[in-house]
Write the structure tokens for this entry.
Amino acid sequence: MLDVTNRLDTSFQRNRTGTKEDPMASTVSSPPLTRRQFLKGAGSLGALAALGGLPLAPRPVDAATPVAGQSLVPQPALISDDPAVHVVRRLTFGATPELVAQVRAQGVDAFIEEQLAPETIDDSAMDQMLAGFETLDLSNAEIYQNYREEAGLVVGELLAATILRAVYSRRQLFELMVDFWSNHFNIYIGDGAARYLKTTDDREVIRRHALGRFADLLPASAQSPAMLYYLDNYLSTGDAPNENYARELLELHTVGVNGGYQESDILPAARCLTGWTISRRTGNFEFVPRMHYTGPIQVMDWSSPGHSGPAAVQDGIDLLDYLAHHPSTARFLARKLCVRFVSDIPPDDLVESAAQVYLEHDTQIVPVLRHIFKSDAFAQSAGQKFRRPFELLAAGLRALDARVTDVRQAGRAAAHQLRLLGQPLFQWHPPNGYPDVAGAWLSTGGLLARWDMVQSLVLGRGPGVSVDLRALLGDALPSTAGDLVDGLADRLLFQPLDPVDRATLLDYIGLAGPERIPPAVLRYKGPQVVALLLNSTYFQVR
């Protein structure tokens, strides 16, 4: 039984002193393949290496409307369109043999319905894994009062919990939607008080409403102290309205930049939401009537004569409800969801039909997702999405069946890997969230960082988790080089390799397919075959 009841020191930013972390042991080991050797790969095994000379950080593109050339996903035709594998790749952070077998047994539709109802899925093992974390269930006031000098611990626990849930939770679609909404309502966690406030936002706003009604999620976000602080709305008064939140509300959270609002709508929207602030006593949302603008307001086709007193908070609530139900919001959200689950440039007819479902079901998200998942466009989209770093890290840990030996070390190490990969969670400065199109992530620097991350996982360099590479080979060791390549491709990719790619791996091993593979060669080359497969196009796309 894993013991996670004791805190490591006082901060995730500090390591235990006087201890030496042992690398993860493996019965199959070898020196790392160099970057030069990796970049010599042919076919899809080296396809990503030929793309771009761009910096590691994601490029500033609009996640919902990529420009021409930014939706390229390398060689999607290589990817199997097996329905069970496809739906697992899209509705989870990464396929595992057990999950693929489950979907094949119960059927794709039954799996979709199960994931759309996360409350029916037993996730007690995940709860137990996080049981020793101290701050995840605390209020804003409790966090600030008890951990004022330990912001690193507060942030570290949230980062670790987010990553561990992505890898080990059985409620996989729910976790994907948590990630989706965390980017849609992006909050930069490194900004002052946001370090103490984001944990509650994650729990009470994003997680509570991830598969609910957008008309409930939107006001919950607007009243979130973390969002009020991040976009300065807690300072906004009738005499000096702050337009930051109102601008992002219209442009990024609801109708979108092409949704019909004008520049002249921003100030009235800001005035409508004045007096929405943070209680100094509780750290929660508070409406202060004396800070509120009481004059008439019109935003797009919505208007109010203006109100004063405690009841004036209703003006803001009514405006948010109007925006949540607006047809432009329906199209904006439908497109973002189609980009997330179908392709970087999804078919317009699917976007329109998904938007109609959104409106017909009173902004409920589950019917929209069901509609997308059962569409022909979704079924035909295998391999058309490129994994962002967070998805790749989680998919790699899931594919390798990595076992947690120390929850805190594992979470801290994974968060560090994401910093190196250019996607540290909750640390995207602009309010639009991390981009969700391939063109933002395809770069030489990003490719090499991905290679280093996979090498770290495969060769057991990550503290807090263990990987048994021998278990990937099945009950019996492969007798030939061809058996090794084919077995690992089936285990990690759930499909056979293209003949050119298979020949490339055999050439790297130095044996023909039918030749027997000596134990020394298996120990030396086996882990690198695993790494090459995880760095191939087959695994980097979904």
